[in-house]
Design a protein that fits this description.
Two copies of one chain form a homodimer. With 328 residues, chain A is α/β, with parallel strands linked by helices. Chain A has a single domain, classed as Ribokinase (UDP-N-acetylmuramoyl-L-alanine:D-glutamate ligase, 3-Layer(aba) Sandwich), CATH 3.40.1190. Chain A has twelve helices and 14 strands. Chain A is globular. The termini of chain A are far apart. The interface between A and B is large, with 81 and 81 residues.
Chain lengths: 328, 328
């Protein structure tokens, strides 16, 4: 099914404890689309300014499955720019600067040829913008939204309105607590389920992700990565891998939103995110080979596969006597 | 196979953000043995003082599979006492007091009838004591040790000597870093593997556990618990569930230490630990029914089971053209 992502394309400056890079390609749409493109075509909707460098256009063009005809280059505007600095342990960061520029203007236009999109990811934006975009995609069948603390605090009614229209919501561990006042992520996500979605994905960064679905709970560890250069975009590549897998799934309409199908999609998101953090910007994804991705996905599935073999002991089976135990 | 645990039996005073309890039964051996007892018999080796309350003896006796004949009540000595206070988020705690008492004296005696034990868990103790205990268990076939920052910093040569004799080591995330100076837990555990063990289990508390085995890497999330009253003993019940499952396993000698068998044991540890944190001391485990444990184990396996169904998209399979995508 046709997949569309609407969000931001950004120019990033990033400091990690050891290295820093300036003016690299970033943004939720960018990371999402690059990740999703490994599963099939993905339509990108975002706005940049006239200053958006040619080399970044070229980088996007390297991903043959990204349809960037929805990347609006707005005359007289400047591209959204963000600078961030990671703490020593890489799990927290401070924003150094945020120049909204084109983000503070009208939302990106949706090209006519994108209006039949069936699978939609509303990346982190003002929930009012998310709702406006969804209105222009009348054929949507599966919609997932991202959000952040800023909208949870500042645009709650609009966010609640979005939640009534989406099938899934993706958010961070601490955002789930902020949203509901419930410290436990499962309890928090259950509260959010009541507002409309069929499933909530709680991202825990290096500690994996939880799926709180109306039909059950899933828990997946992160891929245990040894090489972490820059975590920027990990959440967006996770979402891209997940939505790409869902869009490419040949599940029946009944299975599409089912627990098993969504959990499998989370696994795909987990694995591609583990590649993205190995380098800055799209540096790793642009050299990633499909066979490498497939191999790591299979390795990841083995890492979490608990076998119920014939050799399994049965917990809670009638207790053996000590005598019986000694015979073994 | 016969399972033995050597470690501490303790009298705990615990403050959580909402409740506190005084003089409750605790200690590594206590939690370990209670958890392991759900899989089969377990022999307990520890020393307490004359002050050890009758009610705590009675609590241990409620677990029919615990053989407490190795609980040495030492005349003229006092029981080890510990007090701790948890921070608001329950993932960190401060020690309020530590009265070593009997722990500062000679190690516990191993009863003659325990000397044929095959599976051994050396709970957190001075590594010199761990080595001395192992020497008195000549028939051991599978030995796993726990340790902590105190011994990593203060008894490194003795700890290294223990590592040359054990098959597995269990330690916390931050202890793995402390041990090796490597921040990444996989990298750290690989370093420790070089010192002798066949596998390392890195515990991450509410974020699960990693298995770094000579034959591969495993990663399991914690059971997503909604009820967390007191995390004390979670690591020891985890180890007890894990070792209990291994001791009860009917795996061939070749399979016993294999990756799949150890990872499955970690899953058993994960699940019983999730019960233990629902209440103080052994309050939850002493009412836990085998059927409840089995049910949650099965639920946990479903939570992490990524299905490779026929509906699965193949990541990295040849890219579809947009036209092909539209046909679906």
């Amino acid at each position: 099914m046709s997949l569309l992502v609407a969000g931001t394309v950004c120019i990033d400056t990033i400091y990690t404890p050891t290295v820093h890079v300036e003016n690299v390609l970033g943004g939720s749409c960018t990371y999402f689309a690059a990740a999703a493109s490994f599963h099939g075509p993905v339509r990108l909707v975002a706005a940049v300014g006239e200053d958006f460098p040619l080399e970044h256009h070229r980088t996007l063009a390297r991903f043959k499955n990204i349809d960037a005809s929805g990347l609006e280059v707005r005359t007289g505007s400047k591209t959204f720019r963000w600078g961030g600095k990671y703490h020593d342990n890489m799990d927290r960061r401070d924003s150094l600067f945020t120049e909204l520029n084109v983000l503070g203007e009208a939302p990106p236009r949706i090209p006519e040829q994108f209006r039949d999109s069936r699978v939609v990811f509303l990346a982190n934006m003002h929930p009012g913008t998310q709702a406006g975009i969804l209105k222009n995609l009348p054929k949507h069948r599966l919609v997932v939204a991202d959000t952040m603390d800023f909208w949870i605090n500042g645009a709650r009614p609009e966010l609640n309105a979005v939640l009534r229209q989406v099938h899934g919501l993706v958010l961070n561990y601490d955002e789930a607590e902020l949203f509901t006042g419930k410290r436990n992520p499962i309890t928090a996500a259950r509260e959010i389920l009541k507002l409309g979605p069929r499933f909530i994905v709680v991202k825990k960064g290096e500690h994996g992700a939880l799926l709180i679905h109306r039909d059950g709970i899933g828990a997946l560890p992160a891929y245990p990565a040894e090489k972490v250069v820059d975590p920027t975009g990990a959440g967006d590549t996770f979402a891209g891998g997940m939505m790409g897998a869902l869009a490419a799934s040949s599940a029946t309409p009944a299975q599409l939103l089912g627990f098993d199908n969504i959990l499998r999609a989370l696994a795909h998101g987990t694995v591609i995110a583990s590649f993205n953090i190995e380098s800055f910007s799209l540096d790793r994804l642009k050299t990633l080979k499909p066979a490498e991705l497939r191999k790591r996905y299979e390795a990841y599935c083995r890492m979490i596969r608990v076998q119920d073999s014939k050799t399994a002991s049965k917990p809670g089976s009638p207790r053996r006597t000590r005598k019986a135990s000694k015979r073994r």
